[in-house]
Amino acid sequence: MKELVNHNLVNTEFKEIIFEKRPCKDAQGVPIPGLFNAWIMLNNPRQYNSYTTAAVKEVILAFRQASNDRSVVAVVFTGVGHKAFCTGGNTKEYAEYYAGNPQEYSQYMRLFNDMVSAILLCEKPVINRVNGMRIAGGQEIGMACDFTIAQDLARFGQAGPKHGSAPIGGSTDFLHLFVGVERAMWSLTLCQTWTAYQARHYGLISEVVPALKLEGKFVPNPLVITDRWLDEHGQIVYGTMKTGQELKQGKAMLAAGDIDLSLLDAKVDEYIAGLLETFPNCTMKTINALRQKKLEHWDKNKEANREWLALNMMTEAKAGFRAFNEGPKHDREVNFVKLRQLLAEGHEWNDDLIKAVSPQFRELSDA
Length: 367
Prior knowledge:
Helix 1 runs parallel beside helix 3, helix 3 packs antiparallel against helix 11 (280-312) and helix 6 packs across helix 7. The strands form 3 sheets. A 6-stranded mixed β-sheet has the order 1-2-3-5-7-10, sandwiched between helices. It has 15 helices and 13 strands. It is an alpha/beta fold. The longest helix is centred in the last third of the chain and has 33 residues, at 280-312. It has 2 domains: 17-211 and 261-312, 2-enoyl-CoA Hydratase, Chain A, domain 1 (Alpha-Beta Complex), CATH 3.90.226.10; 331-366, no CATH class.
């Protein structure tokens, strides 16, 4: 047999993320010699697996490496821990380096765009294993994947308009394809989150499995209504958060239990075992044909959106990210009403405006 050519651009030592090859299993759960799955894991659990600039670079290279690996059947894109798959870009880095520096953020966003494109162009099926929250940029890179399998404590949504950004790193391109324009509008502007059960009901994700164990048995998310569909007014309540005493009891159950992601891993293996029993080229042609629906929007808009996001670092993003980074834990948003009042008076965007509306300067502005 002739020596195989290495098509990787560089040999990468991953430091910000984890890249592992794990044995691919058949439908009976038996590892198959010579076949693997590539696990790409965001490794920043203390900051809810937000990605730094360095991590974005490594994700791009990891997807390229997985694409080129002849022994890889599928890619599993996930995060470390059980609290978050990803909550987007690292707001500390945004606030302390990129805020007020549009020329730098433009370069960063080129890397971000390349990360989304690397997922959409991966030459293997990509499963988003949602081990926790999928918020903001995490929602965007998750939707770029081909399948999503979530544990049922996860939540899904956006945060941009609450923190000085716009969800134009993929969400405005992809979300309506999953859930329709009206639901996408609700999610992207009001920044309300969906439970995992709602996300599956709306068509955003493929599967939901329990993650909470009580007395050795898996139970559905006790904070969420999972056993009925309609209320007395005919409104869908399936998947919504409980309220009142029911919510209090659910929180007590959550605190008393243990988080176990073994069902999540088993469901991921089940999907890959199904993909394993197909012709690989036919499968990838099918996947790529479906990906084109996302790429049509993504390729059309990504560069214009990148430049807008860069310039926005001089105004709303500068205020929003610094408020989130520097404000007290209980108060990380600007005073939106006061901001709108000042803008209605014709106040220019400058440091005085930011100080007047930001929580870290609240005592000074109220004096």
